[in-house]
């Protein structure tokens, strides 16, 4: 099997609410599942807590829109100014990285959301950042709007939760990770799920390439090559 074919085998499943391991964040996930047009939710927590996973999962729903840190403020401005709203759910990620123009566009979008909250054209607004609303490095009138409806702080997963997540992600790819492999990863590797997910993906590819079962020696060999961190940018 060529290297390119190995990279194309078993693409990692896209983020969904079902494959998010909630841990202590069950209330936030439940609120997202039942978020109706006219409601707003602000999620905050450290990098690795799952903010982007949750927002991208919602973006996979019908009539949903995801705006990431590389998005153009003009896109948000156009949505906020539209006479007829094209989306039923709008997810805005990493608001702490918004430019002044982006902040102005989100401010307008919040005002539009409130204006339409009880109208047939209402939409749900889901926003995420790395800190509490009033601690955000944003313009004051936008900080207050982040707390207009529901606010949830996302907690990092415990080791038990991360072990469950690793087993689930491996199972989704038809893999089995031994307790020895899982325990070593949780003790010696990065703790956030984005890096752990990238590791499972890279380990699957490396196992296929080498035609070897996934064992602790194979895992250490992979990590020594430096490939999981290099490949994680492509996930």
TrEMBL record:
**One Pfam family of this chain:** Hda_lid
Hda lid domain location: 159-223
Protein name per the record:
DnaA regulatory inactivator Hda
| Origin superkingdom | Bacteria
Q: Name one GO biological process term.
A: DNA replication initiation
Family matches, as NCBIfam families: DnaA_homol_Hda, PRK08903.1-5
Q: Which PANTHER family match?
A: CHROMOSOMAL REPLICATION INITIATOR PROTEIN DNAA, DNAA REGULATORY INACTIVATOR HDA
């Amino acid at each position: 099997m060529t290297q390119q074919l190995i990279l194309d085998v078993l693409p990692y499943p896209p983020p969904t609410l079902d494959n998010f391991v909630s841990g202590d964040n069950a209330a936030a996930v439940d609120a997202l599942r039942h978020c109706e047009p006219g409601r707003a939710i602000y999620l905050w927590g450290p990098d690795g807590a799952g903010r982007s996973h949750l927002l991208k999962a919602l973006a996979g729903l019908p009539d949903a829109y995801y705006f990431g840190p590389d998005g153009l403020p003009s896109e948000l401005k156009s949505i906020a100014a539209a006479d007829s709203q094209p989306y039923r759910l709008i997810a805005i990620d990493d608001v702490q990285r918004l430019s002044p123009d982006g902040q102005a566009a989100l401010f307008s979008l919040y005002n539009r959301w409130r204006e339409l909250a009880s109208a047939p054209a209402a939409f749900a607004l889901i926003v995420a950042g790395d800190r509490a609303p009033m601690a955000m490095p944003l313009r004051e009138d936008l900080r207050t709007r982040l707390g207009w409806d529901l606010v949830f702080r996302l907690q990092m997963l415990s080791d038990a939760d991360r072990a469950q997540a690793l087993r689930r992600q491996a199972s989704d790819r038809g893999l089995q990770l031994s307790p020895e492999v899982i325990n070593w990863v949780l003790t010696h590797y990065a703790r956030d799920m984005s890096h752990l997910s990238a590791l499972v993906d890279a380990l699957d590819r490396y196992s296929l390439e080498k035609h070897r079962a996934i064992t602790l020696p194979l895992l250490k060999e992979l990590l020594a090559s430096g490939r999981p961190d290099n490949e994680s940018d492509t996930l």
